[in-house]
Design brief:
281 residues, alpha/beta, TIM Barrel, eight-stranded parallel β-sheet, two-stranded antiparallel ribbon, 10 strands, 13% strand, globular, Aldo/ket_reductase_CS, AKR, NADP_OxRdtase_dom
Length: 281
């Protein structure tokens, strides 16, 4: 597996394990232990996932040393604002049983994210966080943020998959030195991704599944991915993308799948924004 170098020279595994939608304590803890056992060394959780404690216990019970794990969590909007963010990150560290975090991300471009981001900057300067970033910031909000903060985000974690390739946002992120990280790299199977004709046909050329081709496309174009599964065999399959390479024609065919729109979120919808703000952690 490859690493990417962030804009502060920190190395981050290009493929990690995400724990979104695994709120059950025992299931999450076992999934993380399984992921570590098969070779994942980056873990991605969040306050809103309500499973930080399970992740922390899994790390403690695993045979992998904490220093060998790249651990990410995200601050939810109900904890935005400078002091609230500081307090919530300290609480996250307790749940995760660690005295430092490799990456902390602001989960949404809403509420007082400027105050929260300045809390990240302080903890970064204090050595409590090795890298800081944001999530779900489109090109316009991203550019506004980087124009008004001291430390540019190392990461912007955004919905990125074969059907939403984020070409515009990536252009501005690359100009500013921010690494793109994908959430939903398999689009949660939407648009029949696992049986997509283009992906399946390309997979036959490499003895790989459509899902593996979709993941390979992302990493080959420089995207960090965090696929999630509670099944150990699927975890292994998601790691088996580093032993083949897509050719130029295959890449072009996958690029044509881009719909240039989200399959999950709509930040221009007031009801969607209301629902995010009503969720408290």
């Amino acid at each position: 597996m490859k690493n990417v170098k962030l804009n502060n020279d920190i190395l981050m595994p290009q493929e990690g394990f995400g724990v979104f939608q695994i709120p059950d304590y025992n299931e999450c803890k076992q999934a993380v232990k399984d992921a570590l056992s098969v070779g994942y060394r980056a873990l991605d959780t969040a306050q809103a996932y309500q499973n930080e404690a399970a992740v922390g216990d899994a790390i403690e019970e695993s045979d992998v040393d904490r220093k060998d794990i790249f651990l990410t969590t995200k601050v939810w909007i109900s904890n935005f604002g400078y002091q609230n963010a500081l307090n919530s990150i300290k609480d996250s560290m307790k749940k995760l049983k660690t005295d430092y975090l490799d990456l902390v991300i602001l989960h949404q471009p809403l509420s007082d994210y400027y105050g929260a981001y300045r809390a990240l900057e302080k903890l970064y300067k204090d050595g409590k966080i090795r890298a800081i970033g944001v999530s779900n910031f489109d090109a316009s909000r991203y550019i506004d943020l980087v124009s008004n903060v001291e430390i540019k985000p190392a990461i912007n974690q955004i919905e990125t998959h074969v059907f939403n390739q984020q070409k515009l946002t990536r252009k501005y992120m690359e100009e500013q030195g921010t690494q793109i990280e994908s959430w939903g790299p398999l689009a949660e199977g939407k648009n029949n991704l696992f049986n997509n004709e283009t992906l399946t046909k390309i997979g036959e050329n490499h003895d790989k599944s459509a899902a593996q081709v979709a993941l390979r496309f992302l990493v080959q174009s420089g995207v960090v991915i965090i696929p999630k599964s509670v099944h150990i065999e699927r975890m292994k399959q998601n790691l088996e993308i580093w032993n083949f390479e897509l050719n130029n024609d295959e890449i072009k065919a996958i690029e044509e799948l881009d719909l240039n729109t989200s399959l999950f979120v709509n930040y221009s919808d007031p009801e969607f924004i209301k629902s995010l703000n009503s969720f408290d952690v």
